[in-house]
């Protein structure tokens, strides 16, 4: 198993357990996808992927339809995706993905979390290079030979594939998302969920006390409504 498997295993045990937070994130994803490519999932691959994720998270269909309708309204706030970077205590790099309709508010909030928890907010590009930007897909395992599927999907960019209790996971570089989505759909394979991750190239082991210092900052960041994902280099 590779880094993607270990990364997913660690993340599954922790972040984003609150259903309300998950629905909020998906709602923002829908708004961004609709603004980018229109309200029709048939012609908007990104929206199609978000709807699949909503289904996987058991988000009610009515909520999804409301979010699409709201995003189609010209008066709806235009959320923008903004990346923040910095360091937690003990040299742990942190990468924060946000979706915000007020960048000044988000910048001020993120900076305050770093300041209160003895961290340092970094400049653009200061830690992003420490993470591999990847995409992932999960499909049902039934009727699939993982080794055979891996050989077939290599041509479309898949670099790592493994089975777990939730199905078959595939990881590939960020830019391979469209090609893999198209190929899976053309094969008639159900995409249970898909998304993007930033996998740390190297992780750092800390003592329990040091981990607690970092966790304090991570929790503050993750509680912010504008924050979509948080990645770090602390070994979990």
UniProtKB/TrEMBL annotation:
Keyword entries, A-Z: Cytoplasm, DNA-binding, Transcription, Transcription regulation
Limits of the TACO1/YebC-like second and third domain: 79-234
InterPro entries hit by this protein: Integrase-like_N, TACO1_YebC-like_2nd/3rd_dom, TACO1_YebC_N, Transcrip_reg_TACO1-like, Transcrip_reg_TACO1-like_dom3, YebC-like
Domain TACO1/YebC-like N-terminal residue range list: 4-73
Compartmental location: Cytoplasm
GO molecular function ontology, one term from the record: DNA binding
A Pfam family the protein falls into: TACO1_YebC_N
A biological process term (GO) from this entry: regulation of DNA-templated transcription
Keyword flag Ribonucleoprotein: no
GO cellular component: cytosol
Chief location of this protein within or outside the cell: cytoplasm
Top-level taxon: Bacteria
Similarity field: Belongs to the TACO1 family.
NCBIfam families: PRK00110.1, PRK12378.1, YebC/PmpR family DNA-binding transcriptional regulator
Stored PANTHER family: TRANSCRIPTIONAL REGULATORY PROTEIN YEBC-RELATED (PTHR12532:SF6), TRANSLATIONAL ACTIVATOR OF CYTOCHROME C OXIDASE 1 (PTHR12532)
Official protein name in the record: Probable transcriptional regulatory protein NU09_2228
Origin species: Flavobacterium beibuense
């Amino acid at each position: 198993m590779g880094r993607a498997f270990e990364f997913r295993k660690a993340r599954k045990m922790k972040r984003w357990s609150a259903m309300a937070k998950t629905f909020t994130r998906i709602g923002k994803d829908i708004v961004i996808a609709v603004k980018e490519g229109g309200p029709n999932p048939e012609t908007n691959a990104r929206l199609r992927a978000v709807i699949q994720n909503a289904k996987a998270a058991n988000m009610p269909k009515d909520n999804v339809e409301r979010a699409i309708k709201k995003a189609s309204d010209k008066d709806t706030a235009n959320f923008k995706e903004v990346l923040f970077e910095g360091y937690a205590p003990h040299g742990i790099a942190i990468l924060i993905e946000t979706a915000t309709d007020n960048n000044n508010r988000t910048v001020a909030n993120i900076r305050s979390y770093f300041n209160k928890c003895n961290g340092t907010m970094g400049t653009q590009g200061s830690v992003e290079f420490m993470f591999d930007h990847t995409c992932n897909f999960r499909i049902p395992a039934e009727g699939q030979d993982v080794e055979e599927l891996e050989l077939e999907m290599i041509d479309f960019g898949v670099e790592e594939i493994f089975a777990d209790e939730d199905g078959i996971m595939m990881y590939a570089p960020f830019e391979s998302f469209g090609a893999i989505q198209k190929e899976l759909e053309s094969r008639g394979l159900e995409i249970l969920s898909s998304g993007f991750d930033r996998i740390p190239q190297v992780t750092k082991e800390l003592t329990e006390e040091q981990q607690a210092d970092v966790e304090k900052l991570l929790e503050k960041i993750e509680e912010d409504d504008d924050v979509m994902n948080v990645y770090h280099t602390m070994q979990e």
